[in-house]
Design goal:
By secondary structure, the protein is mainly alpha-helical. Helices cover 73% and strands 0% of the residues. Helix 5 crosses helix 7 and helix 10 crosses helix 12.
């Protein structure tokens, strides 16, 4: 009897995991949409999408609903991490961009926060568009912080080990972030709103704003950078 019950339980658990995967395949595409600027061709996109699906399956297998975390919040870093790992294997960044990223990173180490993209362009021989391209590219060559700005924006990142102090700090950052978003340049603020609040992908946002996906991606990267710098300055 016990073996029968355990078998039934495992079968039910597998069915729940399969349902999570099927219900969230579109979420993989949405996350991938923020990385389209570096996707070389359809084969490359398919490889990255497959990596994201693998991350989704792993997230479904590890998910525990009793922890009180929304599944998409739990799965986000795992899906994106799997995509980024695959991107690193395929080396999507050109030697030119890598050199420019090196310039931007050195400047970031010397300038006082809050640093802006305009400052980076003014202090280098790069155009503002090249700086924004670097900021987008930097997301794929540095280690991911699973509790990063995206998690704060979603305001749903919670784990069972959060202390009251941790939760209070995150709520304070959430309030600060809401204020800072209102101070963003108009286009960047609109991209952030459409992406995080309306949950549109970059292609949909670009279509709504009359912009290309690559331009939309750069605006999102710029907005994230400005917010991250402002938070670093306010909380340091």
């Amino acid at each position: 009897m016990r073996a029968t019950i355990e078998k039934a339980y495992k079968g039910s658990a597998q069915a729940d995991r399969d349902q999570l995967v099927m219900e969230n395949i579109d979420y993989v595409g949405r996350i991938l949409s923020t990385m389209t600027f570096f996707i070389k061709n359809n084969d490359h996109r398919e490889n990255l999408h497959s990596a994201g699906i693998l991350g989704l399956v792993q997230a479904a297998a590890a998910f525990d609903a009793e922890q009180g975390v929304a599944f998409r919040t739990f799965a986000y870093p795992r899906i994106r991490g799997a995509i980024v790992d695959e991107m690193r294997k395929q080396s999507p960044l050109s030697p030119r961009l890598m050199r420019q990223i090196g310039t931007v990173r050195k400047l970031c180490e010397t300038l006082e926060p809050p640093i802006t993209p305009e400052q980076l362009a003014a202090r280098s021989d790069l155009t503002l568009e090249e700086v924004l391209e670097c900021l987008e590219g930097m997301r794929f060559i540095k280690p991911d912080n699973w509790n990063d700005l995206s998690d704060v924006v979603h305001k749903t990142w919670r784990t069972s080990i959060d202390s009251p102090e941790d939760l209070a700090e995150k709520e304070e950052i959430g309030r600060l972030l809401a204020e800072l978003i209102e101070q963003l340049p108009e286009k960047e603020r609109l991209v952030m709103t459409l992406y995080y609040s309306e949950e549109l992908n970059l292609a949909e946002i670009g279509a709504a704003m009359g912009l290309s996906e690559s331009r939309t991606s750069r605006l999102l990267a710029s907005a994230r950078f400005r917010l991250g710098e402002a938070i670093r300055w306010k909380t340091s």
